[in-house]
Amino acid sequence: MAMAMVCLSDFEAYAKKYLPKIAWDFFAAGADDCSTRDENILAYKRIHFRPRMLRDVSMMDIRTKLLGTEISFPVGIAPTGFHQLAWPDGEKSTARGTLLTYSTCTLEEISAAAPGSLRWFQLYIHRNRAVSQQLVQQAEALGFQGLVLTADLPYTGKRRDDVRNGFRLPPHMQLKNLEGAFEVCKMNDRSEYGLPPNSLDPSVTWNDIYWLRSLTHLPIIIKGILTKEDAELAVSHGVQGIIVSNHGGRQLDGGPATIDALVEVVEAVQGRVEVYLDGGIRKGSDVLKALALGAKCVFIGRPALWGLAYKVSRLIGHKDESDNFICYHLNWKQYMVLIQQFHSGVTNSSEVHVELDAADV
């Protein structure tokens, strides 16, 4: 009899067992010693609730809104690459979320797989700016509702297992949104991600926000902010949202856990833009802690890939977004019951301001 999958660590264990080692190592990899990757998870354990009792918990509403668009509960899919390494349908099975530039499915395929859902497009800016411009304008034309600029990847972090494994995108997988965008080069001359070497533009600055604004009417969300100084710059340059992120610990080892960085970012923006978070979210209580500290919504990366590896259609990409992420969804509903015990009158996700033990935050 198959083991019941009751929490995300069960899906993680399954994925580790059944994915090819090179694929598992790619998804799991962190930069250098993986300290920041691991700290993203450990930091939640240092945050404690201050529970209150005898509150009416008979009614609850786990919906919230992102930039005015309602979603069924405050968890989305973070931009992660190369989903076909986990499941043949790739990003078509995780279409209700943020689509990465480095997707193994086209923008059109994603749009067809999730009509009517909330979809943001994540962008890396390439040295060939015409490529990035075309992607942005194509995403807007196809109905994507937001543009997510990743700010923390001028160069790829050193992921030791990928180096040891000699990771390269398999020849049968293509970065569909970039096909034909660059000069043809031999497979041996391509980077591990199937592109010509040094394709990303390391000269990107805050002024490029204005360039993006000239290309699109989509709201711009900047991903990779970890300090109050950069949060203030993001607001002053006119972004509509900030994702507190350290790239899952895959870029710079030794930086803060995202839940720790969230506090100063929220304090810096003072409600002028929406603040989201990714990294380390594994339970409904983690979602609650992030929302209590000021996040509007959280995004998950690796757990979505574990779900793909498990091949559960109900886990990701089913007919109704409320069926997505079963473990998070049910666990979050349980913690919404606790919310009302913490704070009288809280009846939905957007009102969460839970008391935490300040000594442990």
UniProtKB/TrEMBL annotation:
SUPFAM superfamilies: FMN-linked oxidoreductases. FMN binds at residues 79-81, 122, 150, 223, 245, 278-282, 301-302. One of its GO terms (biological process) is fatty acid alpha-oxidation. Its cofactor is FMN. Residues 1-309 form the FMN hydroxy acid dehydrogenase domain. It catalyses: 2-hydroxyoctanoate + O2 = 2-oxooctanoate + H2O2; a (2S)-2-hydroxycarboxylate + O2 = a 2-oxocarboxylate + H2O2. Keywords: Flavoprotein, FMN, Oxidoreductase. The active site is at 247 (proton acceptor). InterPro entries: Aldolase_TIM, Alpha-hydoxy_acid_DH_FMN, FMN-dep_DH, FMN_HAD, FMN_hydac_DH_AS. GO terms for molecular function: (S)-2-hydroxy-acid oxidase activity; FMN binding. GO terms for cellular component: peroxisomal matrix. Glyoxylate binds at residues 124, 159, 247, 250. Signal peptide: none annotated. It holds the Pfam family FMN_dh. The keyword Zinc does not apply. PROSITE patterns: FMN_HYDROXY_ACID_DH_1, FMN_HYDROXY_ACID_DH_2. Belongs to the FMN-dependent alpha-hydroxy acid dehydrogenase family. This is Hydroxyacid oxidase 2. It comes from Otus sunia.
